[in-house]
Amino acid sequence: SEVPPTRMNQQVFKGKLKAAKGGHKLLKKKADALKAKFRDYAKAIAETKASMSSDASGAFFSLTQAEYAAGNFKQKVAEGSMSARVRVGAGVQNVAGVKLPVFSTYDSGAAVDNHSLGLVGGGKKIVAVREKFTVLLNKLIKLASLQTSFVTLDEAMKVTNRRVNALENVTIPKIEDVLRYISRELDELEREDFTRLKLVQEKKEIEMAAAAKQKAAENAAAAKAGKTIARNTDKDITAAFDATDDEDVVF
To answer: Are 129 and 118 in contact (CB under 8 A)?
Structure first.
């Protein structure tokens, strides 16, 4: 590893490991939430598609009945203003930090200019056609919203899973390897320092023992020399002098 094995780097990488594990935990929770929402969307799409088949067949069959009862009124509808009364609005739904598009319908307030349809006959059939195609339109918009959100959610799940796998299989093991390397190097440095201190201590003890031995030898020599001097000084040095030879000193 190119990381210097120091205590500071060890603390830095411990912080990185803690942050990586925290991020992995949060991303794991996010992935689980996205998976649950993904299953809900898949179930809702399947149910919507299943109901749309019957709604579509019913709406077109009702159109056939209305054309049979009121004649071909498509030309009259095309001659109108063709301004849509139902419009689609787009919104955003936040799911675990992922913004999903949501489509909804709203009334534009446009005037209805085909009230005269069905006056001759088949008015009820035309009203039924309008109602059934309105239901079918709502189902189509709902399905479009679900499928768009489904695709967006699928992409977000792939990105989240890639991040989880990267943290789990690359980032965290790499940081752990660096921490193990730093720990090994620091332990080796501690052993080297301990060995060095032990050698220094042994050398100091040898020097102290030698100094103590030398001092003891010096003390012994000094003690021996002191006894010899003491024996020589035991003689009375005043015996060699005669006190009568000195003249009296008068004060």
So the answer is: no
Residues 6+ apart with CB under 8 A from 137: 86, 105
Q: Return the pLDDT at 22.
A: 92
Distance CA 21, CA 104 (A): 40
Compute the distance between CA of residue 181 and CA of residue 168 in angstroms, rounded to an integer.
19
What residues pair up with 90 in beta bridges, in sequence order?
103
CA distance 28 to 207: 65
Write out residues in the chain with pLDDT < 50, as ranges.
119, 249, 251
Q: Write out the two tokens for 202.
A: 């042994």
Q: What is the 3-state secondary structure (H, E, C) of 81-144?
A: CCCCCEEEEEEEEEECCEEEEEEEEEECCCCCCCCCCCCCCCHHHHHHHHHHHHHHHHHHHHHH
DSSP string for 227-250: HHHHHHTTS-GGGGS-GGGSPPPP
Whether the Cβ atoms of residue 126 and residue 66 lie closer than 8 Å to each other: yes
Phi, psi of 35 (to 5 degrees): -65, -45
pLDDT at residue number 249:
47
Residue 1: helix, strand or coil by DSSP? Answer: coil
Neighbour count for residue 149 (Cβ, 10 Å): 23
Span 68-95, pLDDT tens digits? 666 666 666 656 666 677 788 888 888 8
Query: Angle at the Cα of 193 (from 190 to 195), degrees rounded to 5?
Result: 110
